[in-house]
Write a structure and sequence with these properties.
two-stranded antiparallel sheet, alpha+beta, globular, 4 helices, seven-stranded antiparallel β-sheet
Length: 299
Amino acid sequence: MVVEIPASVDGPHLIYRHDYFGAPVRNDADTVWMKERQIEAMYRARFDERRHATEALDSLFTEAAAGRDSRKRAWLIAVAHPRLPLVRERLTRDQAQKVMSKAESLALMYAGRGGVHPLESVDRLNPRPGLRRWVLVSTAAAAFSRWKEAWATIHHDGSVTLAAAVGGHRRAASGAEGGEFFEGRHVESSAIECSIADVMALVRATADLTGAGEYDVRVGVEWAGEGPLTILPRDTMGFVYDEVSTPLHRYTPVETTVNAVASDLDFFWQVHDLAQDCVNQGGVSNVLMIRPPERDGSA
């Protein structure tokens, strides 16, 4: 029998017995109790890891948000960083393509085709090399398609990012190159749901390749134009309305930790819960597109 204990940043792990506790540590084949200074060092390492994780998210978020025309339209920025990045060889282009192929199918399973998926607006077949990452450039460069512009990256350490224009989407098409558009500050809740489904699918597919476990995730909406940001839900008939929306002068980034190697159903619910937090902030109560089965398997 082989028992594998995965690495963790949450040490030291304490054992309680009545009014006493101890911190065990492995010493070859034996388990011994930590000394006070060892416990102090372990807690210092934990706090350092948390600080480094926050700094990594800050750096990823700043990079992904840079250069976006957020004065004209709102952009959703989503970044994810493994809590324990694994040291490994650089990802090949073929591996990046496989991650994208799997992520695309997962995203459609999570959110379906009732909205605009950012991953369908990036060059999934031709990742370009970047600084310790693969960059998936936007394919929505033409004037008639630029409203759904999106960019994504897959980093060699397992991190992923997604930047998607979610404000000013097409309201109603009238021909291949026409249509009416929302204002840049108006964001459909379906655009947020599809973006969450896509970035979480990227996390799931990348973790499957790299072996990463838990991910720290941050999702924000960047808007620097005039007027408050407004998230627009759809009713059961598919019509957009804003009677329940809460105008936002600042969208507070949503942060969470997800288990990327959880069971399919548990991960599906993590996708749902993150999307719900993101739309709730704008006064929207329900997630309409991301509908995981009930946990008891009855659905």
